[in-house]
Amino acid sequence: MNDWHPQRRGQSCEGSDVAPQDRIPGFPFRPSTHPLGLSAEGTALSRHGPVSPVRLPGGQDAWFVTGHRACQEVFRDEAAFRRGDADAIAPFPALQGLVLVLDGPEHRGVRRLVSDRFTPAAVEPLRPRVRRVADRLVDGIAAHGGPVDLVAALALPLPLTVIGDLMDVPEKDRDRLRYWGDGLLSPGGGGAAAQAATTAIVGYMAALLAERRADPGDDLVSLIAVRAREAGIDDLPAALLAVALIVAGWETTAGALATFVYTLLTERHPDGGTLYRFLHEHPEHVPSAVEELLRFLPNSVYAAAQPRRAACPVDLGGTAVAAGDVVIPALDHAGRDPAEFPDPERLDLTRTPNRHLAFGLGPHVCLGAALARQELQVALAALTRRLPDLELAVPPGELDWTPETMIRRPRALPVRWKGAMERCEGR
Ligand code: HEM
């Protein structure tokens, strides 16, 4: 049993067998200095065992879960590990009432409003549409003469266009939504600017729902409006679901896409070329490459998936978790657990099986997982097919990875390619 128990810590200071308080690291950890790396503190804890104590900014202790099996348990067992008020004390408070922080029947009721539209079978027919959006964006890049910022030209507009179109959000409003969404995802979540952004985006979605309820169309906002009324779900949780779709569906996928392309361009395949070149030559490996990049690359800067609170005493990976303890599943560290992934530090684009937890698991498993997978597959396929010579236009060390939100990505990803270079030289 892990004997660094938050509940026993008080006793341990006077007594004998438990590590001294100052050995409990403060959380959140400093992000790694390497763009693809995990935090040094989290990595050190993962070597100690699957579940380790950390101290939250308010002084309260929590459990940091780095083991793959233990993380699975936290996600699956919603009777023992509940979202509920965990966010109130977590380092990054989430908006109360958001589907992400609901539990039990209330959670299922809200999620059910749209869940049938996000199953793999429901999402697959969208592929031609997503391909058209990706092709248009990649054509735009190819037609451009000089270096292009891939974040602005592809990573951000692709997921926004896809989810914006599915929700039929007017184009003129999308920039505003992004601005508010970033406020919501900022690490200082509770600040005045974030509050203002929250009020604005919830108000916007509530108004859009009211409009669509009066005159429904064939879009997700109309669906939420109509079904929420039928199911007796209030306007606020319905509006918050629409907010969650935009916010959770956008920066996450954009961050993943930008970070994936950076990695493919900078990491080498054993055959000597870049991983990007490998995917150009082997497009059949795009789906497994997406899974491997999801496993390997931390989507959240701070290694913090949404925390849970234990509803009852439970043994988690050999650690006695007491009722009321906060538990933080660290998906990125779970993705490097050698007990689940042979040679976990190796980025193997053909790795199978690959049971990563990048989308969580269980009742809160990412609603948009099938859509995100499809967008990432389509974007990488379009890019590697159309621009086989893509390369970074600046040395990797010059990229700015300072987080704007809790999602990891470079602020800009300047790239160039042979055709463009020739055009530039010919001018
Ligand atoms: C690479 C992209 C993405 C990643 C890495 C990601 C990751 C996650 C994770 C880890 C969770 C589970 C959180 C938990 O259990 O506490 C989650 C939940 C969620 N995601 Fe995603 N996501 C991505 C893309 C998307 C997209 C495209 C959408 C929507 C279109 C979306 C909508 C949601 C929603 C609504 C939830 C809450 C589900 C619930 O609480 O029942 N996500 N996501």
From TrEMBL:
<keyword id="KW-0503">Monooxygenase</keyword>
<dbReference type="InterPro" id="IPR001128">
    <property type="entry name" value="Cyt_P450"/>
</dbReference>
<dbReference type="Pfam" id="PF00067">
    <property type="entry name" value="p450"/>
</dbReference>
<dbReference type="InterPro" id="IPR017972">
    <property type="entry name" value="Cyt_P450_CS"/>
</dbReference>
<keyword id="KW-0479">Metal-binding</keyword>
<dbReference type="GO" id="GO:0020037">
    <property type="term" value="F:heme binding"/>
</dbReference>
<protein>
    <submittedName>
        <fullName>Mycinamicin IV hydroxylase/epoxidase</fullName>
        <ecNumber>1.14.-.-</ecNumber>
    </submittedName>
</protein>
<dbReference type="InterPro" id="IPR036396">
    <property type="entry name" value="Cyt_P450_sf"/>
</dbReference>
<dbReference type="GO" id="GO:0005506">
    <property type="term" value="F:iron ion binding"/>
</dbReference>
<dbReference type="GO" id="GO:0004497">
    <property type="term" value="F:monooxygenase activity"/>
</dbReference>
<keyword id="KW-0349">Heme</keyword>
<keyword id="KW-0560">Oxidoreductase</keyword>
<comment type="similarity">
    <text>Belongs to the cytochrome P450 family.</text>
</comment>
<feature type="region of interest" description="Disordered">
    <location>
        <begin position="1"/>
        <end position="45"/>
    </location>
</feature>
<dbReference type="InterPro" id="IPR002397">
    <property type="entry name" value="Cyt_P450_B"/>
</dbReference>
<dbReference type="GO" id="GO:0016705">
    <property type="term" value="F:oxidoreductase activity, acting on paired donors, with incorporation or reduction of molecular oxygen"/>
</dbReference>
<keyword id="KW-0408">Iron</keyword>
